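User
New here, help please:
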Amino acid sequence: MRGRNVIDVNMDLHQPQLIADCLIHTFSFLPEEDLIRASAVCKDWNEAAESPWLWRRFCLQRWSFCNLSVLGSEQESRSWKRYFLRRCHLEMKMAKGSSGGYTCKSLRGHTGRVVGFEYLQGNSAQHPDIWNSSSTVCSASSDGTVRAWDIQKGQLLWCSPVQSPLTAIVSDERREVVISADCEGHVKTWRGLTGQEVASFSTASTHCALLQYNVSSNWFLTVGTGRGSVCTLADPTLTQKSSVVVCDGFKVDMLLVSPDRKWIFAGTKDSKDLSPKVIHTESLTSPSEGEDPLCQSVPVTGCQAAVFMPTQPARLALVHQGPWDKALTVFDVAIQKSKYKSEIQVQQVESFPLTLTSWSSRVLLAAKDSDVLVLAAGLQLRVYSLKGALLASFEEHTMPISSMCVDSFRVVTASQDLSLRVLTWRSDRGPGWTLESQYHLLGGSHTVSRGFTAVACDYASIVAAAEGKDGKDVLKAYSFTS
C-alpha cells in the first residue's frame, strides 16, 4: 500500500507533462541515431524526441563550440536538430573528401607572387555558421595589389590600386578591415567590403610582420620591423601608441598574441644567439608615460617556431636550438607584482628533444586545446603531448611541407609536391587526441606550378596558394557544402 502511494504521488500517468519529461530524460541517454528511430514510434515519442533541449545537449556534447547566434528563433528551418544534422553531414563530407562533396575554384588575377592571404568573411572554427556558405578571402601579391575573392563563386570582388610590391597581409573579420604592408614599409588599412583605403603609416622598414588583435572593443595592430623593433598602432586610422626594441639589428619575423590578448611574443629566426621576448600587451597598447613596456626574455636561443596553447592562454611552446639538436620547451608566463614594480616571470613547464629523421630549417608549430602540439618539419608531421610523448607521426608528402592549418576538427598540410593532406582529430580514452589521415587534394599540374606555398582554412573551405612557374601565383579554393 505504501508503494502504491509513492507511485500515485510521483508517477501519475494522467499527467501528460510528466510523461513527456520522463521520455525526454530517458531519450537523453540515447545516441542520435536511436533518437531519430524513437521519434517514429508514436506522437508522444516524436514530440519528446524533437525537444530542442535534447538536440542542444547533443550539439554541446559533440562540439565545445557552437555558434548559437546563427540559430535565431526556434523555428523549423533553424532548429537545434537541423543544426546538429547539417553540421554532422558537413563534417562527414570534409572528413571523406569524396568526389562531389566539394567544389574547387582557381582564383587567377595576380601577376606576381602571392605573399599571403587571409579570410575576411569566413566561417571560423570557433564560430561556424552552417547556414551561410559564403566566404571572402583577401590576398596580397608582389604585383602590388590586394584582391578580395568570393571563393565559392570563384569571383574577384575588388582590387586595390597598384603600389610597391606587398610583403604581408592580415585581416580583422569583426570590423571587416584588411591590413597590408609593402617593401617600402608602408602599412595600409582597407575596407574589406569595397577595397577603399582607410589609412597609411610608414615604418621606413623593408620588412614588416603584422599582428592584428582586439582588446575588448579596442582595435590594435602590432608591427615587427626589419630593425628589430615592435611598433603598436591603434584603430584602423593607425595612430601610434608605443615602440620597443626586441632584437636589435635583426628583423622581427615571429609575432604572436595569446588567446586572452594579455601577451605578445616577438622574436627573430635570423640569430642563433638571441632570445625571443614576451611583452605585456597592456604596456604596448596603454603605455605609462616615462616607463618602458613590460618585457622579458624567454630563456632559450635559436627559436624557430612558437605557439600559445589555445585553452591555456599564458602557456607558450617554442621550438629552439637545444644542446645537440632541436628541442621543444613549454613555458608559463605570469606577472609578479610587488609594492614598487611589476615583473614578468617565465617559468619552464616541460622540455624534450625533437628527434626528427629529416633535418629542415623550416619548422611549423601549432597547438590543439591545452596539451597537444602539432609539428611539421621537412616531410614529417608529428603530434606530441605536452610531456613529449609522440601521439602520431605521418610522412605522406613526397616534398617538404610548406604550410599547415590546424583547427578543432582537422589538420591540413600543404606541400611543394602540389598536394594538400587532410587529417581529422580523434579522441582516444588513453593518450587523448590523435590524428587520422583521411585524403589528399591535388592542386593541378607541375608543368605550370612549383607547389603549394601556403594554406588556410575556415570551417567549410580550404584555400591554398600555388606558386606559378610563370611568376603568376594562383589561389585554389576547395569549398564543402552542407
About this structure: The CA atoms of residues 283 and 289 lie 10 Å apart. The first helix runs from residue 2 to 10. DSSP finds seven helices and 32 strands in the chain.
